[in-house]
Amino acid sequence: MSGEEVKPPSEAELAKMDRDQLVELGTKLDGVTLVEYPDPWPVKDTRAEKRAERLVALWFAISGLAGLLFVVSLIWWPWKYEAPDNEHGHFLYSLYTPFLGITLGLAVLGLGVGILLYTKKFIPHELAVQERGDGGSKEVDKATIVAQLADTGTRSTIARRSLIKRSAGLGAAGLGLAAAALPVASFIKDPWKNTDNKESLWHTGWQPEHPGEVVYMRRNTGRPHEVALVRAEDLDAGGMETVFPFRESERHDEEALSAALHRSDNPVMLIRLRPADSARVVKRKGQEDFNFGDYYAYTKLCSHVGCPTSLYEQRTNRILCPCHQSQFDALHYGKPIFGPATRALAQLPITVDDKGYLIARGDFIEAVGPAFWERKS
Fold it and tell me: Model pTM?
């Protein structure tokens, strides 16, 4: 290092300097001594240089193509559940999430590896020593740093490597498109186009498809195509069972029977309170007749973030969500009493038919699960 003070040039002298002179001046003004500043490719256009350029371009191209594949798979890959008995459909469905992860991972990896390889192969690896100094940036400092950056760009030969520039642009565009597609994907299909049907956020599979249709409560026996309806006498006092909707029109439709068990907003906790507990129930205004005797039915979707509230504590009559430990009081219209949940569990209105089978009197009167933008509460 040198302790000699460098006198800044006048504005007229500064204007006459070329880039090399500005680079040299900038290093001196910053108290920097360039020990080594080698050209990565002193002999231009060699086979090794071309191979290095193609390798960098290959990784950028992989990133761009992977980003495009991510967007394509996110939007057009078969993502709806298919039962295992449909081998082809189930196989494609099972690849949806892994394919999203692989393509997005490759997009990030390809761009990162391409940048690292370009830095290693083409950016000059100078060795510099700089003296410690204080003070802000002057006009001469600004001019020299711009010159140094421009010189670095020239020495890295990026200006004449159109293949790398195009492939890098493809990689950055592909990854950017993938990142933009994630928040935009939910707007491709309008969730409010037909809000009165059971496919909207406001309704569930318990909604009758036509006036007068009976929707039964069905238990899951482990065999998707078996229909096991629930009678009022099937549960002991203090018992709980998860039930799903069933329609007679679906009895011989294997796909519909299986889909009813896998739809996320269908599961309902059917609880039969003990007589002593039933006498202490506090009912929600407007839902005074939603129960049938000692039987109460609540959605299994937690009102916090939609985890399954699959635990029922008979002694305390509390419904528990294992994800974030929210607790709901089954004797107080499913009101939250502990944890992050702030809204009561939606209650399904139920009764029995003339054969003693438990049925739904209609759909939930509020949206189940966590909040969303259009929800008022």
Answer: 0.56
Residue 61's CB: how many other CB atoms inside 10 A?
Answer: 20
- The C-alpha angle with vertex 160 and arms to 156 and 163, in degrees rounded to 5, equals 100
Range of the domain at 156: 11-185
Beta-sheet pairing, 327-329 with 318-320: antiparallel
What pLDDT score does 160 carry? 76
- Residues 140 and 233 placed together within one structural domain of the fold: no
Which pLDDT score is estimated for 199?
Answer: 75
Q: Which segments of the chain have a pLDDT < 50?
A: 1-2
CATH number of the domain within which 349 lies:
2.102.10.10
